[in-house]
């Protein structure tokens, strides 16, 4: 089966035989035996090129993931606890910046032969299409191609700089926000604005359970730019507490409406649905769950 896949990928017997280090005649005999066993023709053969038949293409698409899984299982059995290879991860930037990356040395100390590739773009990455091993994602996960487990939450707060607050009217309740500059965040993937929902226990006290009904003073679709705008004193921002905490501690930011708790975003660990989950993904998931257990800010209430 591996020989058949290499022939499809290289387009001829000669290149495939060189890749697999077997004679062309041996390879041809293996394909003939496979076709006889299956009772279908798998390849169109010409003097210049070999291409899969309709049955051959379907067979290739079905068996290739299985062969990759078998190869990975064999490698893991041979490696034992010495996990190696590349782990591709996709993370929201607040999770990457304030939870995963600062603690990553402890994970790599346990698995020094593992290579890590972390993406933290503003778009929603297709894990299956882009070959990403796993991700942490906020909100509801509706993709049935993915396995998802809620592992924590991302809490939010409203903040502004002391200078901004000194130059504008006091904020004592939700209605007062309508007189202020609202810094909105627009999701690059959907073009929709992030809504500022209050927590369930006070939802009846606030119109539609949402703060800020006015048109935003400014709108940003990049998290880092949004944070810079907030720190520059351009208005009131809606940010993860993990980002805000250091600035609240130094007084560079002030939390607004502390008596109005905001709805936290559930965070899920996700990976492509498969009969076999790579060991490196399982180890990383367990490490993340243990990490959240030691960080109350990210724990589910």
TrEMBL record:
- Location of the HTH lysR-type domain: 1-53
Record's keyword terms, sorted: DNA-binding, Transcription, Transcription regulation
Q: Which GO terms describe its biological process?
A: DNA-templated transcription
Recorded hits in PROSITE patterns, A to Z, give: HTH_LYSR (PS50931)
- Matches recorded under SUPFAM superfamilies: Periplasmic binding protein-like II, Winged helix' DNA-binding domain
A GO molecular function term, named singly, is: DNA-binding transcription factor activity
Pfam families in the record: HTH_1, LysR_substrate
What does the similarity note say? Belongs to the LysR transcriptional regulatory family.
Q: What's this protein's name?
A: LysR family transcriptional regulator
Provenance organism: Glaesserella australis
